């Protein structure tokens, strides 16, 4: 019994570490390349690559945490703080959805996960820009940019996640 609790404690510590590492990687990937979209005052970035890696490798908890915290930190640190509350929610749901849909064994499920999570992200930012930020139909200008962002995130994130899953040490492959 004591061994079981020790194992659970180790898994929780690893989860906390993965949350921190993945959030940092998302923040860095988001800040590294930022191409402004003047019409919406938003930007194209490649943080979704790491959100998908975190979600597809480690599941919804780590994917959601990394998406919300990492992306929001990047928004605040790079001058887009007005997007941070929306980003926290939208990117958190994106990472959580991708992690829930993926079964971490099947590339087809990973593709479905990216499509559904990406659809949520594109829709979420459109709605955030249309209503609360109140730029109206100008928000449509960012839809194709966000689609490109998701496409790149999936094209790089899915193979990267597959490689990482194969190389993870055995006891931590089942972290949920």
Quickly describe the structure.
The chain has 176 residues and is mainly alpha-helical. It is 73% helix and 3% strand.
Number of domains: 1
In the CATH hierarchy, the architecture is Orthogonal Bundle
Mean pLDDT: 93
The 3D shape can be described as globular
Largest sheet: 2 strands, antiparallel
DSSP summary, beta strand count: 2
Cα radius of gyration in angstroms = 16 Å
Textual characterization of the structure:
This protein has one domain (2-172): Arp2/3 complex 21 kDa subunit ARPC3. It has helices spanning 2-32, 47-58, 60-77, 84-101, 107-130, 143-167; strands spanning 35-37, 42-44. The protein has a two-stranded antiparallel sheet with strand order 1-2. The protein is built from six helices and two strands, in the order αββααααα. Helices cover 73% and strands 3% of the residues. It is globular and about 60 Å long. The model has no long low-confidence stretch (mean pLDDT 93). Strand 1 (35-37) and strand 2 form a beta hairpin. The protein has 176 residues and is mainly alpha-helical. Helix 4 packs antiparallel against helix 5 (107-130).
Question: Could you name the key traits of this structure?
Answer:
single chain, mainly alpha, Arp2/3 complex 21 kDa subunit ARPC3, globular, 176 residues
